Amino acid sequence: MTEPVQPFFRPERTLINAFGIIILTSLFYFFGAMLRLIDELSLFWPLNAVMAGVFARYAFLNRPHYYLLSYAAMLVYDAITTNWGVASLAINLSNMVFIVTFAMLMQRDASQVKGDERPPLNVLKLFLYCLIASALCALVGTLASIGIDKYKLWPLFADWFSEQFSTGVLILPWVLTVRWPRSKTLVSPDMLWPFMAVVASVGASVLIGGAGSLAFPLAALIWCAIRYSLPVTCLVMLITGVAEIVLVGNSTIQFNTAAPLETAQLFSARLGIAIMALCPLMVSTSVASINALMLQVARRANYDYLTGALSRSGLLETLKKPPFADTRYGSLCVMLIDIDYFKRINDSYGHECGDAVLTAFGERAIRAVGTKGLVARMGGEEFVVVCPGVSLKEGLELAEQLRQRIADYPFNWQEKTLSITISIGLSHQDCIEPGVIDAFTRLMPVADRHLYRSKQSGRNQVTSTSDVGLGSGKVISETI
Ligand SMILES: Nc1nc2c(ncn2[C@@H]2O[C@H](COP(=O)(O)OP(=O)(O)OP(=O)(O)O)[C@@H](O)[C@H]2O)c(=O)[nH]1
């Protein structure tokens, strides 16, 4: 596992945030301008959706000065590259209408839902918000560009609206979900099949043509939604959608070979592609939610909720899986730990106090063992520590350290200070075979016998398989 990568935009980095907004705005303005393939308006205008996604994702960017910076960057770009003059103020205002409307609607939702309950992506809401933002943006944009563009009011509105809506629906899911991978993932050749199927079906759309061809990639996209993570599915959807819009825009995918492409056809194609995106995104968010739920259920079954240690079944499951199942460790140390006179704590201070002691003990034990082994709660006030590759001497040192730490640092509960001790039974074995589970099963009853001896001999001590001369009066030894 690698450390999570810090996001570029962070609340405390005002200047860097401002710089990022200017660069992003200019960069995507440039992309949009490059795609002015037909007529005056761009075929695909990514700027608004990208910026709306950034503002929606990072709540702290929702400040008038950051919005103004983005707007200013658009005006400067226009001033340098077009001769729209004053009309540029209104045209770019329409871009800002999309960005601000979408970001505000998303932020309003985010403030109403608690972090844990937030779904990875609410596709239906995203559709609705894109629809509202696109309609408002198209209204302002149409009125602003009537003099500049050769189209009349309604075709201009349709073109503007369909472009904003399709671009928003394709880009925003990816901008809202993309993240650096937390661990290095190897892509197996098997994983490429769904993407290859998408490429093949777009190819078939080009070859066959006609209105129905736009839906050809749908099945392959749903396959992607099942096999890939949500951000990857969103990215594949984005690439496919943009490819289809551009292919329709430059007549590589032809609806009607007898007539040139008309604005109405592009309007229809864009809306069709945007609505097609709904299916794979819905499937992908459902798969992501099911996976998250399964992970949560597995976590609940594998971990003890009170102490954070593994549960008995969680420990066995862990030992049956790699690396514990297939590594040759050379030795194994098992410690069975029991809190002394725990019943008295319950009886004197109540069950709630007993629970608090168990929680605190679990935390201390996990911290003390660290990466040397696994800590599991076997039931009641009994814990086990499993240390693969740890020698008997090291195991005894660790057990003694833990015993001492518990005895020397009392627990605090409400106003009270509770001194507790633990008894430990430790067993050890040199292993020849790979894997840990068989040796663990053999060592558990031995550790149990040693724990019994620790209790019998007055508690607060470690009893082990053999004496390795640690020099501690508390370590009692016995050979199996
Ligand atoms: N608070 C709390 N108590 C628990 C939990 N699980 C088991 N216990 C209690 O732990 C106590 C265990 O007591 P015993 O097994 O008699 O042992 P002990 O008092 O620790 O004495 P020795 O082990 O002989 O030193 C019982 O009173 C159980 O009710 C739990 O989850 N929370």
UniProtKB/TrEMBL annotation:
Spans traversing the lipid bilayer: 15-35, 42-60, 84-105, 126-148, 192-216, 228-250, 271-294
Keywords: GTP-binding, Membrane, Nucleotide-binding, Nucleotidyltransferase, Transferase, Transmembrane, Transmembrane helix
Domain GGDEF residues, every copy: 330-467
InterPro entries: Diguanylate_Cyclase (IPR050469), GGDEF_dom (IPR000160), Nucleotide_cyclase (IPR029787), Rev_trsase/Diguanyl_cyclase (IPR043128)
Pfam families per record: GGDEF
GO molecular function, one term: diguanylate cyclase activity
Catalytic activity, as annotated: 2 GTP = 3',3'-c-di-GMP + 2 diphosphate
NCBIfam families: GGDEF
Matches recorded under PANTHER family: DIGUANYLATE CYCLASE DGCM-RELATED, REGULATORY COMPONENTS OF SENSORY TRANSDUCTION SYSTEM
Listed name of the protein: diguanylate cyclase
Organism: Atlantibacter subterraneus
